[in-house]
From TrEMBL:
Keywords: Repeat. InterPro entries: Cell_wall/Cho-bd_repeat, ELLD. It holds the Pfam family Choline_bind_3. It comes from Lachnoanaerobaculum saburreum. This is Cell wall-binding repeat protein.
Length: 304
């Protein structure tokens, strides 16, 4: 029997009113598959997303700060949204329920789903993302043999859980790995992605391609426009390449991108053709009224 992860009840066996956090290590826990009965399975189309969903559930089940309470069901979601979807970093008692936890796991995997979903609309919400397929044949619902790690089990209006292991016959159904065209590819929505091997694409990181820097989101799509990493801002051109060492005009405002690509803030930038220094404020916006030939470099830095 394969393992699944779920949020099921509080420490008293009830659905609300208990103490925050997992009081008996069973509120959010891993257990063997069982026939709830389930009436739908939502399977991630991307195996990488499936793996991240399952790993997120495992992290939640190991974190004793995460308990069960339907009345406080979004507290885990709110904490994870604020910390960049890092379940391991949750260090204070909070609560979730079965569907709110599925929403958290999906977001950890890079699939944006509202924390307000419940078992009655969960299937519709997940399918709307375009990242899942619906399986409702009896072999997926009545037995664990054909389930795969990352599958989401659903008994509408009652319960939901996440599969953590492949069933005995799951591998027989695994399709041949896709063969991507190496390099740049574009989907039907006009979104660009980059295959770095016949079976994988760059996702969730920066990449230097042909001497230019690009950023790809968790789904593998190239990002354009403003991009924030930590507290710093970068700007990615319409072709996705990071701009650097230049001024840009956005919505009638001017900003300076340093040679590293970082947007300059609270800094002076020296003119390249005359003895003039330009100042940008804490939001990176150029302020013409502070043009000067004598910058206060004891207070503000000079950037390149």
């Amino acid at each position: 029997m394969i393992k699944i992860g779920q949020a099921s009840r509080d420490e008293r066996g009830k659905y609300s009113g208990g103490m925050a956090g997992d009081q008996d290590k069973k509120e959010v826990a891993i257990r063997g598959w069982y026939n709830r009965p389930w009436n739908k399975v939502l399977r991630p189309k991307n195996p990488a997303i499936a793996g991240r969903i399952a790993a997120a559930m495992e992290d939640a089940c190991r974190n004793e700060n995460i308990g069960y309470d339907q009345y406080e069901r979004t507290t885990l979601y709110d904490i994870c949204k604020a910390n960049g979807w890092n379940i391991k970093a949750v260090n204070k008692p909070c609560e979730t329920d079965c569907s709110a936890l599925v929403a958290v796991c999906a977001n950890v995997a890079g699939v944006r789903v509202s924390g307000s979903i419940y078992t009655g609309n969960e299937a519709a919400a997940l399918l709307k993302t375009g990242e899942f397929e619906l399986l409702d044949a009896p072999k997926y619902l009545m037995t664990d043999e054909y389930l795969r790690r990352g599958d989401i089990l659903l008994y509408e209006f009652h319960h939901t859980a996440i599969v953590l292991e492949n069933g005995l016959r799951a591998e027989s159904e695994v399709q041949k790995k896709p063969s991507f065209k190496l390099g740049w590819n574009k989907n039907h929505n006009g979104q660009w992605w980059y295959a770095d091997s016949p079976n994988s694409c760059i996702a969730g990181r920066w990449s230097l391609i042909n001497g230019r820097w690009y950023v790809f989101d968790m789904k593998g799509y190239m990002i354009v426009g403003w991009f924030k990493q930590g507290s710093e801002w970068y700007y990615l051109n319409v072709d996705g390449a990071m701009l650097s060492g230049q001024w840009i005009a956005i919505d009638g405002k001017s900003y300076y991108l340093q040679e590293s690509g970082l947007m300059a803030r609270n800094s002076y930038i020296k003119s390249k053709d005359k003895n003039m220094y330009y100042w940008v404020d804490s939001d990176g916006e150029y302020k013409k009224e502070f043009d000067t030939t004598d910058p206060d470099l004891s207070k503000y830095q000079l950037v390149k």
